[in-house]
Design brief:
The chain is α/β, with parallel strands linked by helices and 333 residues long. Helices cover 32% and strands 25% of the residues. The protein is globular, with a radius of gyration of 19 Å. The structure holds coenzyme A. The site of coenzyme A (COA) has 19 residues, from helix 2 and helix 7.
């Protein structure tokens, strides 16, 4: 048996830069009320959402990703050629193949970076971050771009009262690179496929193609079941991530949960007994639920507004369709 040389990576990995892109069109609740029987007051009080962004024809998954990535690369202070991996997490890129990551890697000017897409719903950012960390520590890339991007407006049934107001579009990106100190904690992640029916695409594309269903497929959910799962189970996962990182809620500066619903965020803050001093991301109010993009978008905004600062310790947790989840403690770029 031939002796195989081991690969050599960095001792640790960290997030070095973050960037976001929100589509230019801001959509207030009034627009949602044109197609569902609801009220601005109901939407605000049940979800926290006041406005969201919807992409126009030019704001494609690739275009939004490239904008967000350019900012993340500049923020990290590296050049695109140094990037060895591009991971795109999305459920709303409408071309099955090739992966949109390859187009993004090329347009950004990487040097033939390894590039691929992943589908992990609203946990997609955490899944991508975990893969990126592995690639850097294992030595297959020095810098990895992790992008969460969605055009959920394409997959929203505007006549569905349970979801019409929830979703938004956008892209968030981070550059992950080598570090001498741990700056991305152990990931607590998993899946609960027995609950796969609670958030899903209404019908397969093939049913639409064959004419079996007339309505374009959309994302549907059992709101209450998802809500209960998020509130009870995800607080436990968040706590496990703190334990795995060897810290307590008192050591945290920032909490960036998936921006699904502000009531879920409030409930997690309470269950985790986060001290008043912890800054909590509430980007959902003006960005809606952007699935894989929500955590990097919220991170970018907290840093841009000065509510969080470089070097802060943040707990990030994503959860959604699958059902899947991923939580970890990170040092902010
Ligand atoms: C969607 C969600 C906001 C709905 O809130 P809810 O309190 O569970 O609402 P329910 O479906 O139980 O409905 C409660 C009442 O509001 C009504 N209602 C439902 N949707 C409504 C709407 N859009 N506008 C006004 N009223 C509405 C219902 O008819 C019901 O009325 P009733 O009490 O007279 O029967 C909530 O379930 C939720 O946020 N779930 C998790 C969603 C999520 O985060 N998904 C993504 C995870 S990645």
């Amino acid at each position: 048996m031939a002796k195989i040389k081991p690969s050599k990576g960095a001792p640790y990995a960290r997030i070095l830069g973050v960037g976001g892109y929100r589509p230019t069109r801001v959509v207030p609740n009034e627009v949602i009320l044109e197609t569902i029987d609801s009220s601005d007051e109901w939407i605000r009080s049940r979800s926290g959402i006041q406005t969201r962004h919807w992409a126009n024809d030019e704001e494609t998954v690739a275009a939004m990703s490239i904008e967000a990535s350019g900012k993340a690369i500049a923020d990290a202070g590296i050049s695109a050629e140094q990037i060895g991996g591009v991971i795109v997490s999305t459920v709303s890129h409408f071309k099955q193949t090739p992966a949109v990551a390859t187009e993004i890697a090329d347009t950004l000017g990487t040097n033939k970076a390894a590039a691929f897409d992943i589908s992990a719903g609203c946990a997609g950012f955490g899944y991508g971050l975990t893969l990126a960390k592995g690639m850097i520590v294992e030595g297959s890339a020095e810098y990895v771009l992790v992008i969460g991007v969605e055009r959920l407006s394409d997959l929203t049934d505007l006549e569905d009262r349970a979801t019409a107001f929830l979703f938004g579009d956008g892209a968030g990106a981070v550059v992950v690179g080598p570090a001498q100190e741990p700056a991305i904690g152990p990931t607590v992640w998993g899946s609960e496929g027995d609950k796969s029916e609670t958030i899903k695409q209404t019908v397969p594309w093939t049913d639409y193609r064959s004419g079996e269903v007339a309505k374009f497929p959309a994302i549907t959910q059992e709101g209450q079941a998802v809500f209960r799962w998020a509130v009870f189970e995800m607080a436990k996962v968040a706590k496990e991530a703190l334990d795995a990182a060897g810290i307590t809620a008192d050591d945290l500066d920032v909490f960036i949960p998936h921006q699904a619903n502000e009531r879920i965020i409030d409930s997690m803050v309470k269950t985790l007994k986060l001290p008043e001093s912890v800054t909590v991301a509430r980007d959902v109010r003006t960005t809606g639920n952007t699935s894989a993009a929500s955590i990097p978008l919220a991170m970018e905004r907290l840093l841009a507004t000065g509510e969080a600062k470089s070097g802060d310790t943040a707990l990030v947790i994503g959860f959604g369709a699958g059902l899947v989840y991923a939580a970890t403690v990170v040092t902010l770029p």
